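User: structure tokens for RNA-directed DNA polymerase (Reverse transcriptase), please.
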Amino acid sequence: MGAQQKTQRVLGNGGRGVAPGAVDRGAEPVAANPESESPSACDRLMEEVCERENLKRALKRVKSNKGAPGVDGMTVHALPAYLREHWPSIRASLLEGTYKPQPVRRVEIPKPDGAGVRKLGIPSALDRFIQQAVLQVLQKQWDPTFSDSSYGFRPGRSAHQAVAQAQNYIQAGYRWVVDLDLEKFFDRVSHDILMSRVARRVSDKRMLKLIRSFLTAGVMEHGLVGATDEGAPQGGPLSPLLSNLMLDELDRELERRGLRFVRYADDSNVYVRSERAGQRVMAGLKTYLTGKLKLKVNEAKSAVARPHTRKFLGFTFSDRVQVKRRIAPKALTRFKDRIRELTQRTRGISVDQLIGTLKRYLTGWRGYFGFCETPSVLRQLDEWIRRRLRCFFWKQWKSGRTRFQELIARGVNRNLAAQTAGSPHNAWRLSCSPALSKALPNRYFRSLGLPSVGSS
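Assistant: Done. Predicted tokens:
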């Protein structure tokens, strides 16, 4: 019997004894009243978590997501073998309400805008698996009740949809934005407030205890475990769903006030017709967030402004009659910085390795930012990337003799090749010279497999 079959056989034991139709009875109606919490009447959620099919899907997702090991050092590749040996006791502890997660491992990564670091909490592979299994059960019930204006970490919803909706509001005449940034949201979520919201929807006391135990498991940093009395560590599968639950109350308040808004995780934009209305909304929301949810607005990053002066999910918008999606200036700066880093000659890599790395990065970047409506900007980026590559080749050829020979071999006449190889100008200036343009034309880079960001 194969390893996967053995794992499925062990996990399959978890589904025995589950009442038929438990999923249906626990699910909240899709057409739920948005003002109500639609609490679940099901107190057998843990049995649903331990169902065979749910566990198989959770294991598959955790393995596909890969991710770094937690405090115990176990990789996701080692998880199936561990489950084959220990799943019966793990399942028993879940059903008895005694399962204790391990502390998360603290990892700090630079923020995209360069302003400090973002603190992640990496759970162990086992805890990620269990969180994923819990997520699949709870998300199925909770997600249909969330606001239509919430787009982050939800099935069938995306950042592109959020940006497009923001564009629609601006086009419709709501040309002022209340740009709300919550200060260290994931670090400062009140456990008591969050758990009170969970308890409105979950009656299974084992599930409530398990979720709180994930919140309070502690953080290992520099070899020491510290307590966590607030916050929902970023890094685990369950945190995004819990953040959406916490901020669903903000969504309902905005809807109650009749406001047009778009929220993606903790990034909220409210669109209004005038600056005065925006200032009034900002003041009211600060009071609401502080008093009701114990959350603080980041004064430095929040503002009432024209949308073209602000960025939203990496995009901004043109200030014209016909509103167009544009790539935010900071996103363009980050892109160029990354390309410069990848095309440094001092990295000591081959052309094939360079093109392979660029291909992966450019394909992913184009998949997201290709959503902009400024094709001329993308064409300019393509030209700039090719200039960077011509610089890379020119520097790699090093000596004047090698440069001359390479130019001749690539079809440049001897006089032009000699003139260019002996030029005192720097590589960047020469990168758009006639000789290098002929020796390294656009079609040459296409033949290497370099993708264009300006076309699919």
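User: Anything notable?

Assistant: The chain has a mean pLDDT of 87.
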